[in-house]
Amino acid sequence: MITLIVAGFALNIKAQEMEIGGGIAYGTNIQKVGLNLKLNYGLLEKMYISAYANFFMPEKIEVNAVEACSALTTGNLDFHYRIINNEKFKLYPFAGVNYSRIGVINGGVEQDPVTSIGANVGAGFKWKSIFTELMYSTGNEDISQLTLTLGFLF
Fold first, then answer.
1. Could you state, in order of their start, the residue ranges of all structural domains in the chain?
2. Which CATH class is domain 17-153?
3. Quick one: 94 exposed, middle or buried, by C-beta within 10 A (0-12, 13-18, 19+)?
4. Residue 55 near residue 86, CB atoms below 8 Å
5. Model pTM?
């Protein structure tokens, strides 16, 4: 009897899908383009966890009359629920957490970075291997922004 129950559960287990890829991202608050690296892991047929990072282009700034360099990096962990989930097209809302860091290098020395933990909410779609997402991230006033991402997942 126990063998039949275990076999029944085993037949219902779906092979978990994993996707890896990346693309470009644009942040509206910082008005910079960045590199996106992404990993999706399927929990159930329509539910996915997505872990990704955005590395935005550095910007030259002035700190105490000295030229410095500032760059934003974000790490995100989101839960996706695929409303449409067929072989070629997927549509999904998502929500999750965000860690953001603005680093400033002044005279070759990194100053105290500005960090923030916040929330993400957004939506995206995937067509074949191409994906795009629009996300709003909360954090402190320097880091909260809309981010548009376009990329590929394999």
1. 17-153
2. mainly beta
3. buried
4. no
5. 0.83
